[in-house]
Structures are given as C-alpha cells and as structure tokens.
Amino acid sequence: MIVVIDTSSLLSLVRYYLPFDQNNKLFNFIKKEIQNHNIIVIDEVLNECKMVSGKLVVKKLDFLSDKDFLKAHKIPVKTENLIPPSPKKFYNLVDNNFITPNAKKLNSAQFEQRKKEFLDSADARMIIYLLTQISKNSFEKIILVTEETEGSNDLKAFKKLPAISKILDIEVKTLPELLELYTDINFSFE
After folding, report:
1. Cα(31)–Cα(43) distance, rounded to whole angstroms?
2. Residue 3 near residue 145, CB atoms below 8 Å
C-alpha cells in the first residue's frame, strides 16, 4: 500500500492524536512508515508544514526537520520535475474538469496565473505523483490521505483534492480511515 499524505492530515495527526500518544506508539509507527516510504511526504507538503500553524507539524514530528534523517531516507519525495502520465489528457482535465465556477469568471491572464499557482501547489503535485505511481504500480493499493472535503472551495479557481481525486478515480481516505487499515497494530490511548 502506498499512502500519500496531505498537510491537513499531518496537522490533524499532531493536533488531535499525538497529544494522547503517551507511549509514542503512534509517533514511532508514523515515523517508520514515512521512513520506509509507505507513507509518502512530498516536497511541497513538507514546505507547507513548515509554514502553517506555527510550524506545528515539523515541531511535533521533529524527524521531518532533521536534515540527516531526511537525507538518509530520501525524504521528502521530490516532485518538481514530475510529468503526469498522458500530459495532454491531464492538462485538458486541469483546464476543463478541475476548475470551479469561479474560474470561469477570470480573464485568460488571470486564469493562466491561477493555473500556474495550482500546478505548483502541493495539491497538484500530490495528484501528479499519485497518477505516476498508479501508472507504475497498477497492482499496488494507492491512497491519498487528506482531511479536506469535496464541498465548497471559497473563491478558489480549482476544486479540492477529494473532488479532483473522484474525477481521476483515486482512492481518498481521512486519517482515521487510514489508521483503521493498519489492523496489525492496536492504537490505544491510555
């Protein structure tokens, strides 16, 4: 199973789960899964983690700011030069299917700017990484973990991760749903 985790899920992990992890069982499990590349942290997600909520994620998951650990385990996964499988099809989806009604209100220059920002974002990079993994590992279970919901996207020009994943038939789970999949370990918070 390959799990690609979003900033929102890492933030939920450190805010709502780790405070009850008295024996560091969950912390050590997550660290091991990230270290073994069973849970993937991409470069843009790690960059977001360094900028949101007073750097809470990298403070609590301190191994994510340990340069030696990151280098030794090749974390984060670099996505800057990833090209989606079937690029023409992907960019057509970006232009036509991933947009919200707000995108239609933009002039072409504004749309192109928002599209560039979207394609450089952690969301788009995770999607491209997932599509690349799906094309390489057709028999492997591949999951995107995010706490985002499909619903309203404020004034953004592009849909949220769950909505895009639905279009692309990528499996999406929340952090609690992911933890339920790990049947071999018992998380009990005492």
Report:
1. 16
2. yes
Is residue 76 reached through a cis peptide bond, with omega within 30 degrees of 0 on the bond before it? yes
User: Given the DSSP bridges, would you call strands 39-40 and 171-173 parallel, antiparallel or unpaired?
Assistant: unpaired
Q: What pTM, to 2 d.p., does this model score?
A: 0.92
- Residue 187 inside a domain? The answer is no
- Judge contact between 126 and 39, C-beta under 8 A: no
Distance CA 49, CA 58 (A): 6
For tokens 């992890």, what's the residue? 21
Answer yes or no: is 189 within a domain: no
48-89 residue pLDDT tens: 999 999 999 999 999 999 999 999 999 999 999 999 999 999
Count of Cβ atoms closer than 10 Å to residue 114 Cβ: 17
Q: Across all residues in the chain, what is the average pLDDT?
A: 93
Owning domain of residue 22: 2-181
H or E, element range at 142: strand 142-145
Determine contact, residues 117/144, Cβ cutoff 8 Å: no
Tell me whether residue 175 is in a domain.
yes
Residue 186 has pLDDT above 80, yes or no: no
